[in-house]
Amino acid sequence: MTPRELKNNLRKERLALRDALDPQARIAASLSILEHAGEAIELSPDTVVSGFWPIRSEIDVRPLMVHLQERGARLCLPAIIDKETIVFRAFSQAADMIGTGFGTSGPGPDAAVLDPDIMLVPLSAFDRGGHRIGYGAGYYDRAIDRLRAKGKTPKLIGIAFDCQEVASVPAEPHDVALDAMLTESGFRIFGSGIDG
């Protein structure tokens, strides 16, 4: 089986487990990630943090985003521009939300496009080494590549439920490892790229 086929199998398996979680457990987990990382994520004034509006059965990162904004972060959300590209649009709680592709919501095209310093990254599966499996479209991998080509080195924090952990994620050349992983059971730092 190829790495891509293995990833597809792991993606389906872990998303099915995530979908089966009790709605009350999802709410509790979303509040837990705030407790684990609300103060642990180091911010300087005007640090740009990309979050995401949860879709389907994703963990709800909005309480954490609000807290980071209260601590001085500037927030942005992803918007799909075409089949290859996402950009990150400035978000405020007063912003009108529109459909921004892939089932997500975010600010409209009038919002400023920002380059994140910290990215809260959605995923379908992860391992204890910081490797992730996304949803298969590659938007985040390409966005990270574009940021790095501009000389940016965003800190990558995966966000998921514990049930999405797998023993090992098959590696492919384009894969980008996470700096940290945040689940309902804690905030794990993989390298020296994140303070906290």
Describe this structure in words.
It catalyses: (6S)-5-formyl-5,6,7,8-tetrahydrofolate + ATP = (6R)-5,10-methenyltetrahydrofolate + ADP + phosphate. It comes from Pararhizobium capsulatum DSM 1112. Belongs to the 5-formyltetrahydrofolate cyclo-ligase family. With 196 residues, the chain is an alpha/beta fold. It has a single domain, classed as 3-Layer(aba) Sandwich (Rossmann fold). Helices cover 27% and strands 24% of the residues. It has helices spanning 3-19, 23-37, 62-70, 139-149; strands at residues 48-50, 74-80, 86-91, 97-101, 104-107, 118-122, 125-126, 132-133, 155-159, 180-183, 186-189. The strands form three sheets. The chain has a seven-stranded mixed beta sheet. A hairpin with a 2-residue loop joins strand 4 (97-101) and strand 5. Helix 2 (23-37) packs parallel to helix 3 (62-70). The radius of gyration is 16 Å and the shape is globular. The termini are far apart.
